[in-house]
Amino acid sequence: MILLFFEIFGGKKMVLQQGVEFLGIVVSRKDYKERDMLVKILTDKYGFKTFFVRGVRKRGFKLGAAILPFTHGTYLGSISDEGLSFITTTRDISQYQQITQDIELNAYASYILSLVERALTTEDLVNLSWFLRVKKALELIDEGFDPAIITNIIEIQLLTSFGVRPRLESCVICQNTERLFDYSESYGGLLCQQHWHLDPHRLHLDQRTVYYLRLLSVVDLERLNSIKVKDQTKANLRKTLDEIYEHQVGIYVPAKKFLDQMSSWDQFFKDNK
């Protein structure tokens, strides 16, 4: 690896690491001028980086398959700490085929990547192994696992990175782990039945939803073999997490809008069968 130092506007120095190898997942790309592209890639070592790719529309361009959205593999190039990075070559390139071809799976995968980008610093992505977690989530969705549940797992487990640490292992008041529970936004976690009176505005969740809320907060995607959740419970989980993200996290990722629209369409078709 070669380090090059450049002085840019305002006397600030830019570091360009040449000849570095990294794993990557292509997030998006957009045209730049007539023949070039800017390609955003989630990398295992440097977080989200934007790469300048020259001559995309020239005859004989060799990186075409490697910069398609939802492509993943090993990349070699130059990484800039400020500004654009560059790709030299690639190997072991493949694409999440089902995600690419299915508009619903595509929407879930795009939302996961957008949410991760909002939640995590580059240091967290690298040190907390979130790249591998995201890669596994996309693999599971591509293999046919329920995309809504995989997305819920990511959403719940990202809450800590947003500064929200809901207590889901026990009652926030008495630490009981065995009674009936409900979620309280005011208390930041679960209240057992004995303490429900403390928050009349608790979410009034059914126990199956509470069970899955607790389970998904600790499940290891690498060890997930199968998971099936009833449609009503999935709807309740979606509503619960929407409440938490709206009122406690306070963000709304634009990619979520399309998911919400698809949910509305599904409900419309069910109601009009």
Automatic annotation (TrEMBL):
Oxidoreductase among keywords: no
Domain DNA replication/recombination mediator RecO N-terminal span(s) in chain numbering: 23-94
SUPFAM superfamilies: ArfGap/RecO-like zinc finger, Nucleic acid-binding proteins
Keyword Amino-acid biosynthesis: no
Keywords annotated in UniProt: DNA damage, DNA recombination, DNA repair
Gene3D superfamilies documented for this protein: Nucleic acid-binding proteins, Recombination protein O, C-terminal domain, Recombination protein O, zinc-binding domain
One Pfam family it belongs to: RecO_N
HAMAP family per record: RecO
Function (record text): Involved in DNA repair and RecF pathway recombination.
Similarity comment: Belongs to the RecO family.
Name of this chain's protein: DNA repair protein RecO
Naturally occurring in which organism (per UniProt): Ligilactobacillus animalis
Gene responsible for this protein: recO
